From TrEMBL:
Keywords: Repeat. This is Pentatricopeptide repeat-containing protein At2g30780-like. PPR repeats lie at residues 249-283. The gene is LOC120274086. Transmembrane segments: none annotated. It comes from the Eukaryota.
Length: 506
């Protein structure tokens, strides 16, 4: 019945055609007009639970007065289009005052839409709003709180929290404050990592006699605590919502799940998800995307794959970040089909979307699987993109990969390129070369490894000489084996008694 009444009201308003594109952007009934007589109604509307909607591109666009004809709506639409084009044609840094001064004043709903159209150039949008608030005395009706909320949001996204704070102060002085303005500043501080200031704004809102926190306010507060891994206060805010007259919505639970994921609290993440499945607020697509991320980070492959089936099309088409998270989960797993699954997911990552950390993980996976061609392909890409590997574990995996394939010449080539690229060399690289040269009876090259070690400032160890001793003794080259024993004694790696025993055994 509510939608039917809503349409009936719209038929009585001559601006129906102008408003229709925006009706789906807001879940609440839209007031018919913003006349002085309805100011109290409008104030309650903008302090409603969706006061943060403009932060998600869902600002309700309202008219201040009914247009006298369909032509008026078309005129505003045309004026808005022309004004946007003229403003966007300005060079940076832009001063829009001349264009705005020479144009007819826009009603609030149209100016809100103008700010949205200028969001690709936040400095220009803020300059336009600055002009508008300095000419607010000539506006009829006056500047609306939602315009301040929109400008504060843009300032926050432009990493200018100081300006966002100044705008709220100005709105308070002009007595055009609302819950949505406070919400916008809280979100701006949250976006810029200013946790204490966001909480301070919440405290100010609670003291304002004309406004009161909405569920959106508490959702922002949940996000503030969740991003900072402050789980205890986050859970306290959730209890406050549940014990108040407000009702938690889908954003409430999604924000809590996101907080648990940030804190790596997988059990509580799952319990919140089950609570949603059993309660009136059911999981949505965003919930499933969050759970997919959580299962990927926690390494729960079975549940990760189950959730992936629910959102496969969305993830494959639009969420490369989640694709990378799933690949990372497979890289760290013991799944027998991990290579097959990794390659299936990799098809959805654009070639230009290179991540050094993921490239290094894939080098290690292919090395562990003994797939030398694929391993070298990713090593070559790392060299090409100047990725530097400093992790001993990765280097050891590469060594093992070459050893499994008995590819000593390829290993030698890798060592040369790795040294040139600034990768972290380790003694194991040289020991592996010695072992492999020894197996192939390439004695001169095996001894040459000692010179390489000296060049890279790796002193020989007892293991170094034991590798050489074993290589000679296994094929009966007694004289060379005894020479190695002598070197070990000379460097203090064996005692005279051990030397005698070794010689007797050979």
């Amino acid at each position: 019945m509510a939608p039917a009444r809503h349409l009936l009201l719209l038929r009585r308003c001559s601006t129906t055609k102008l408003l229709l594109p925006f009706l789906s952007l807001h879940p609440h009934p839209i007031p018919k007009t913003l006349t002085p007589s309805s100011s109290s109604t409008v104030r309650r509307f903008f302090c409603s639970d969706d006061g943060l909607s403009d932060l998600h591109g869902r600002i309700v666009l309202l008219t201040e007065k009914p247009s006298s004809s369909e032509a008026d709506a078309d005129a505003i639409r045309s004026q808005l289009s022309d004004l946007t084009s003229r403003l966007l044609s300005l060079p940076d840094p832009a001063d829009p005052s001349q264009i705005l001064s020479s144009s007819p004043l826009l009603p609030s709903f149209a100016f809100l839409h103008l700010l949205s159209l200028l969001r690709s150039r936040p400095s220009l949008a803020l300059a336009a709003f600055d002009w508008r608030r300095h000419h607010s005395d000539s506006l009829s009706p006056p500047i609306h709180p939602e315009e301040y909320a929109k400008a504060i949001t843009i300032a926050g996204r432009n990493h200018n929290p100081e300006l966002a704070s100044e705008l709220l102060t100005d709105a308070r002085k002009r007595r055009v404050i609302s819950t949505s303005v406070y919400n916008a500043l809280m979100a701006a501080y949250m976006y810029n990592g200013l946790t204490k200031k966001a909480i301070s704004v919440f405290d100010d809102l609670k003291l304002d006699p004309d406004c009161k926190p909405s569920v959106v306010t508490y959702n922002i507060l949940l996000s503030v605590f969740g991003r900072s891994m402050m789980v205890t206060p986050m859970e306290a805010v959730l209890r406050t919502i549940e014990e108040s007259e407000l009702s938690p919505n889908i954003s409430t639970y999604n924000t809590v799940i996101a907080g648990y994921i940030t804190a790596w609290m997988w059990d509580k993440m799952e319990s919140t998800y089950r609570l949603m499945e059993e309660g009136p607020v059911k999981p949505d697509n965003h919930t499933h995307l969050l759970m997919l991320r959580g299962y990927a980070h926690s390494g729960n492959l079975e549940k990760m794959e189950q959730v992936y089936e629910l959102v496969r099309e969305h993830v494959n088409d639009k969420d490369v970040q989640l694709i990378r998270a799933m690949i990372c989960a497979y890289c760290k797993s013991n799944d027998p089909e991990r290579v097959k699954k990794i390659e299936a997911l990799s098809k959805f990552i654009p070639e230009e979307d290179y991540r050094p950390w993921l490239n290094v993980l894939l080098i290690r996976v292919y090395a562990q699987e003994g797939l030398m061609e694929a391993m070298e392909r990713f090593i070559f890409e790392a060299f090409q993109r100047n990725t530097i590997v400093t992790t001993i574990g990765v280097m050891n995996s590469i060594i093992s990969g070459y050893f499994q394939c008995n590819a000593v010449d390829r290993l030698a080539g890798f060592v040369r390129r790795a040294e040139y690229a600034g990768w972290r060399l380790c003694r194991s690289l040289f020991h592996c070369k010695m072992v492999m040269y020894g197996k192939e009876k390439r004695w001169e090259e095996m001894h040459g490894v000692l010179d390489e070690m000296e060049l890279f400032r790796f002193d020989p160890t007892k293991k170094t000489y034991l590798i050489m001793y074993k290589a000679y003794s296994e094929i009966g080259r007694r004289w060379e084996a005894e020479t190695v024993i002598g070197k070990m004694w000379k460097h203090g790696f064996v005692t005279p008694a051990e030397v005698v025993n070794s010689l007797q055994s050979t």
